[in-house]
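2 proteins. here.
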Amino acid sequence: MDYGTLRGLVALLIMALFVIIVVWSYSKKRKASFDKVANSIFEEDDLTKQNKQSHLDKDSKQERK
């Protein structure tokens, strides 16, 4: 096996991996999971709500002084 054949096999392997990743990412089975992850940034968790409320409480206490 010479260097040119090895380079060709590596290029073929990389192209096959690329095609596999594209097919996997656009499959209908993964759509729901990807949509959930994509929209998770817009969901507020309880900790964030508590932090916002505590900051609002501190601000209102400071305004009263």
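next one coming up
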Amino acid sequence: MAENKKTRDRLQDLRATSDADLTVVIANAHKNIYQFRKDRLSKPVEDVKVVKNSRKEIARALTIQRERELAQSNEG
């Protein structure tokens, strides 16, 4: 139950951000995935959920971007 509340709060935070900030969120998540894979080759990695969480963050941000695109196309 607590997980759903965290997800809802994160979605509200993302919806409140601008389009430029969503692009930054996506870029940072891609960077986290890249850094995790790079670090995994050289040393043991403790937090193995980085990739999963980053991919979900990317999906959330892309979904919000698409919702905004569809809302703009329906208005005009």
